[in-house]
Design goal:
231 residues; alpha+beta; 2 domains; three-stranded antiparallel beta sheet; 4 helices; globular; binds FE2/S2 (inorganic) cluster
């Protein structure tokens, strides 16, 4: 619409100018008049053709978005299908596998093969766990300590399950800087850390060295007389 109005205005101005020049043409003579007429005829023709091209271009521009929209939608739909096909293997792999479940889910552990005096290591949620089958002497040593003298006072009874004194389950990293203490080592025959010398007793309590607290007890429960579930 804007293009058409502008074309009409320009054409009107040209015609008025043509009239004025026509008057001058009549005054100046027929030769000049013919040249002027020829010039304005060509000018108007050229202008009309240009306006026609502009109008045509405008009409084409109005129609073009429709094709672009179609192409855009078609391309987007194809891209969405391609993206879904591409990421589906990754999505399907997000289903937890056995290793992932073992890393984060509760772990069932059969105590039957663990002999008295033996310490077994296992992992739960990426953390090292000690499962210790304590001897009668180790249990007695752990229970007869004056708790008030301990750096991190805890009676042995709160670190084991009632009626299951022979089983001690604790995290397996030193509470100083995380090294792995060696079993059946140190003055209290519990664990001794090879890094800076922390000593833990048969209840996993800190007795000597720089470690500030006892080896923590992870969450666990007995699921049968000889099986536990950690987590
Ligand atoms: S890490 Fe065990 S004593 Fe330092």
């Amino acid at each position: 619409m804007t293009v058409v109005v502008r074309a009409q205005c320009v054409r009107h101005c040209l015609l008025r100018l043509g009239d004025r020049l026509g008057n001058q043409r009549r005054q100046a003579g027929s030769g000049i008049a013919e040249a002027t007429t020829s010039f304005w005829s060509v000018a108007e023709g050229a202008l009309g053709a240009r306006m026609t091209r502009v109008a045509t271009t405008h009409a084409s521009a109005s129609a073009e978005p429709t094709r672009r929209d179609f192409l855009f939608i078609a391309t987007g739909a194809a891209g969405a299908v391609g993206l879904a096909a591409t990421i589906w293997p990754f999505i399907s792999q997000m289903a937890p596998d056995a290793a992932t479940i073992a890393a984060g889910a509760p772990v069932d552990f059969d105590l039957s093969p663990v002999a008295e005096g033996q310490i077994v290591k296992l992992f739960w949620r990426g953390k090292l766990i000690f499962v210790r089958h304590r001897t009668a002497a180790e249990i007695k040593s752990a229970q007869t300590v004056d708790v008030a003298t301990l750096r991190d006072p805890e009676p042995d009874s709160v670190r084991v399950k009632a009626g299951k004194d022979q089983w001690l389950i604790v995290y397996g990293n030193c509470t100083h800087l995380g090294c792995v203490p060696l079993g059946n080592e140190g003055a209290f025959h519990g664990w001794q850390c090879p890094c800076h010398g922390s000593v833990f007793d048969t209840s996993g309590r800190i007795r000597q060295g720089p470690a500030p607290i006892n080896l923590p007890v992870p969450p666990y429960a007995f699921t049968s007389d000889k099986a536990i579930r950690i987590g």
